[in-house]
UniProtKB/TrEMBL annotation, chain A:
Compositionally skewed regions (Basic and acidic residues) per UniProt: 243-273
Family: Belongs to the Mediator complex subunit 17 family.
Main localization (coarse): nucleus
Keywords: Activator, Nucleus, Transcription, Transcription regulation
Positions of region (Disordered): 242-273
Stated role: Component of the Mediator complex, a coactivator involved in the regulated transcription of nearly all RNA polymerase II-dependent genes. Mediator functions as a bridge to convey information from gene-specific regulatory proteins to the basal RNA polymerase II transcription machinery. Mediator is recruited to promoters by direct interactions with regulatory proteins and serves as a scaffold for the assembly of a functional preinitiation complex with RNA polymerase II and the general transcription factors.
The name this protein goes by in its record: Mediator of RNA polymerase II transcription subunit 17
Any Pfam family the entry gives: Med17
Keyword Cytoplasm attributed: no
Compartment list: Nucleus
Subunit structure: Component of the Mediator complex.
Organism: Stylosanthes scabra
TrEMBL record, chain B:
Subcellular location, record wording: Nucleus
Pfam families assigned: Med22
Origin species: Stylosanthes scabra
Alphabetized InterPro entries for the sequence: Med22 (IPR009332)
Domain of life per record: Eukaryota
Keyword Transcription regulation: yes
Keywords from the named record: Nucleus, Transcription, Transcription regulation
PANTHER family with a match to the protein in the record: MEDIATOR OF RNA POLYMERASE II TRANSCRIPTION SUBUNIT 22
Name of the molecule in the record: Mediator of RNA polymerase II transcription subunit 22a
Length: 664, 158
């Protein structure tokens, strides 16, 4: 019992039979024996539960009073709490009953039957079950939603990845590694950038960049990791002009680096799929080019030691090869990574972009201000970029083959044997390089001559051949000298004279029109009216040979003009002689001197007779003495003045008289 | 044996015109396997979903409800697993398409080759045109230079 509860004691009657009734006839009637079950039931009924009920009533009254006081804030679980408390009390009563029954041997539990549920209790049980099941379904539904979101993300990731991969596969070879050592999260895809056109048997440097692993970035998109140091570019240059070359090429590498920096900055911004694919494509192309550059370097490295190429290896380092072409020309070929080039540029200039432009302008200024003697040395350094492209083109055609047999602007047309033989390529390249350097020197000489002789015009004849160059020195009789009687083409004297200079490799060939060809005159063809003189010469004698040819052409022209007017003249290579009366001859002689600043071709008038020759032999006169009465220095005459001089001499011959023979 | 267009590794052409009959048979077998997987996964999903729906009835004994809740979780997990299997199948199909789509790849490569050939020819023509223009400009400039040199020298002469 709980404390505070009044203790009540009930006293049972003594278990003796008491007379229940007595009849008139004296028969005693005793109460019947109580059945065991009935006896037990009576004992159970004697248990008084009133105290519990009263207690409940008191508590209810109290709670009602509290509820009335706190009517403004009802708690939603209050009813449930009350129900639970009631259930707890009932359970405690039952537990007490069970304990009492267990303690009391006279009373045992016969059976237990669940009381029939009341409708509301049944419905509440059903509601609880339904709520539980609903909760299960909601849990399952939440699980399905989470899974669906995860699947959607995975599908989107895979769609992006495989979409990009399929698009890149259209241009690049995709391989898959099915090995177990694949990193988690990666399907083992790789890009194989090594071209099958490369000759496997001759490749020494197996490029580690040829296999590019395909990874996923944080967004699940396709990504490739390429170190910028691993991509090398081919650099060709002349030893001694490294600073100019590096500045000249710095702008190209600056543009590449600026693109790289730009992409690095934009990496932080989310790229859409299109940009991502383009960026990956660009990176793969950079690696592809780097592999090709490595192959070119390897081929050059291998062929450079072949003596038939005509070059000598003078320096070799890692990714660097220095070659000597002879005559003081040395070139280098190197593989430069973008970082090395960038650091070299930074070491030379502070502001990369602006200073990248300035050297080009300064080089233009150098071109404008360069004298002919200094241009000889600097001209060879201006074409290193084109040589770089040229050597790449040569080996590209060798490795991959040209796309079509026809090459419209083939500057590198090779013979069939050379095209198929790699060893001849390097020789061809360096011979082209040597030819370019040599032809620059030849051009300098020709420009020197053309500059000093005003009636000579230098015309370049593009050959579109890397080992052949051609120029024409053209001389035309001025229009003012043309006579009206020369309108008839057949009888007109030749008015245009040319001298053609061809350079094949390092051989100079001079071809010029010479004296008129008799048979050609009868044929009437312009190209066959004159003989063609052909000379092979070296560069030291080139200027003299050219000037002699030009002077002889002038002599021929004057000779023809004299014949046209009916004067009998004699012609030598550089001399035109008029016969005067009394056995005297008046000669117009040409003197060529390439070093003459005022003009390379000067003219002398020489009077020769029997007395003059004897005196000349005796006195051993200096031919350059203009004050001699037998020689007269006329100077550097133009064509008009020469023609006028000729007419004067013709008049002298016609008019006769020794007074004019002195030619004063 | 070949059902419709080539699926999976069946990029060898219709009608067994591929390199070998064994390859065609292997492709057909792989196609059959993939279809079985697809059907199995979908049947799995449908079966588990139907069980989920059938378990919706509320039973009197609460114990059975607990049992059914565990079963529902199990069925849901199986459904998700089947869906994941289907997704992996799709990934495999995509990978197979990448490595077996020779027809489209060849067509595209041929198309690109033609494009690049045209681009190469166009570049060659452009280079030749540039060369011709450069030669013409050079000739013109040489003519101008010659005429200007003559003028300078004539001015210098008295």
């Amino acid at each position: 019992m709980e404390e505070g509860t009044q203790l009540q004691v009930s006293i049972d009657k003594l278990p003796i039979k008491r007379l229940e009734s007595i009849e008139e006839n004296g028969i005693e009637r005793f109460p019947s024996d109580v059945d065991y079950d009935e006896k037990r039931l009576s004992l159970i009924r004697r248990i008084d539960f009133a105290w519990a009920v009263e207690k409940d009533d008191e508590e209810k009254n109290k709670k009602q009073k509290k509820a009335s006081k706190e009517a403004s804030t009802p708690w939603q679980w209050q009813s449930m709490v009350e129900n639970l408390q009631l259930a707890h009390q009932e359970l405690s009563v039952i537990i007490d009953l069970i304990n009492t029954v267990e303690a009391n041997d006279a009373v045992t539990v016969a059976s237990m039957t669940r009381p029939k549920l009341l409708p509301n209790e049944a419905l509440s049980d059903l509601a609880v079950s339904a709520a539980t099941k609903l909760q299960c379904y909601r849990h399952v539904g939440k699980y399905f939603k989470q899974s669906a979101k995860a699947f959607e993300r995975q599908v989107a990731r895979e769609a992006r990845f495989y979409g990009a991969l399929i698009r890149l596969q259209q241009n690049w070879k995709v391989k898959r590694q099915r090995q177990a050592a694949i990193a988690p999260g990666s399907e083992g895809f790789t890009f194989d950038l090594f071209d099958t056109s490369y000759d496997q048997g001759t490749i020494y440097r197996s490029s580690s960049m040829s296999t590019v692993r395909v990874n996923h970035d944080t967004a699940g998109m396709l990504a490739i990791n390429i170190s910028p140091n691993s991509c090398h570019t081919l650099q060709f240059g002349f030893v001694g002009a490294e600073s100019e070359e590096r500045r000249g090429t710095s702008d190209k590498h600056e543009s590449d680096l600026s693109d790289e920096h730009h992409t690095e900055e934009t990496d932080k911004k989310p790229l859409n799929d299109e940009e991502c694919v383009k960026k990956t494509h660009s990176l793969l192309r950079e690696v592809h080019k780097a592999i090709f550059n490595e192959q070119v370097f390897d081929l050059v490295n291998r062929e450079a030691f072949n003596t038939s190429t005509g070059v000598t290896v003078t320096g070799i380092r890692e990714n660097y090869l220095q070659l000597s072409l002879g005559q003081g020309t040395a070139v280098y070929l190197s593989l430069v990574s973008s970082d090395q080039d960038h650091s070299a540029v930074e070491g030379e200039s502070n502001n990369d972009v602006e200073n990248a432009i300035v050297p080009l302008e300064s080089s233009d200024e150098m071109e404008c201000d360069a004298k002919l003697n200094t241009r000889k040395k600097e001209g060879q350094f201006y074409h290193s970029t084109c040589y770089e492209i040229y050597i790449q083109q040569i080996f590209h055609d060798y490795i991959f083959g040209s796309g079509s047999e026809k090459s419209v602007s083939s500057g590198s047309r090779l013979s069939g044997a050379q095209a198929k033989d790699g060893s001849g390529l390097l020789g061809h390249f360096f011979m082209s390089l040597a030819h370019r350097i040599f032809s620059t020197k030849v051009l300098t000489e020709l420009e020197n001559v053309a500059c000093k002789v005003p009636y000579l015009q230098l015309i370049s004849n593009p050959t579109w051949n890397s080992r052949a160059s051609s120029w024409t020195l053209f001389m035309e009789v001025p229009q003012s000298i043309i006579r009206t009687s020369d309108f008839n083409e057949k009888n007109a004297s030749k008015r245009q004279f040319w001298t053609k200079v061809s350079v094949n490799d390092d051989c100079i060939n001079v071809k010029a029109e010479g004296s008129p060809n008799v048979s050609g005159l009868f044929k009437g063809k312009a190209e066959e009216t004159h003989t063609i003189n052909r000379y092979d010469c070296n560069i030291a004698d080139l200027a003299v040979v050219i000037l002699q040819q030009v002077a002889s052409q002038i002599i021929n022209w004057l000779y023809q003009e004299a014949l046209m007017v009916g004067i009998k003249v004699n012609r030598d290579f550089l001399s035109l002689c008029f016969e005067l009366e009394q056995g005297e001859t008046l000669c117009l002689n040409a003197n060529v001197d390439p070093e003459d600043i005022e003009g390379c071709i000067s003219w002398w008038l020489v009077m020769e007779d029997s007395f003059a020759e004897e005196q000349k032999l005796q006195m051993n006169m200096n031919i350059n003495d203009g004050a001699s009465e037998y020689k007269k220095f006329l100077g550097h005459l133009s064509l008009e003045l020469l023609y006028a001089t000729l007419m004067d001499l013709v008049g002298l011959c016609c008019g006769g008289g020794g007074g004019g023979g002195g030619g004063h | 044996m070949n059902k419709g267009g080539p699926v999976g590794g069946g990029g060898l052409g219709v009608g067994g015109s591929g390199p070998t009959a064994a390859a065609a048979a292997a492709a057909a077998q792989k196609q059959k396997t993939l279809l079985q997987r697809v059907e199995g996964d979908i049947a799995n999903i449908v079966d588990n979903f139907s069980h989920l729906v059938n378990v919706a009835r509320v039973n009197d004994p609460p114990v059975r409800n607990s049992q059914e809740s565990f079963m529902m979780e199990m069925r849901a997990a199986r459904m998700v697993q089947a869906a994941d299997s289907l997704l992996k199948l799709v990934s495999e199909l995509k990978q197979t398409a990448i490595f077996s789509g020779f027809a489209s790849l060849n067509d595209h490569v041929e198309q690109r080759r033609v494009e690049f050939s045209e681009l190469g020819e166009k570049t060659d023509r452009l280079l030749s045109r540039i060369g011709e223009e450069a030669a013409a400009s050079l000739k013109e400039l040489e003519t101008h230079y010659s005429s200007s040199a003559q003028k300078n020298l004539q001015n210098l002469k008295p």
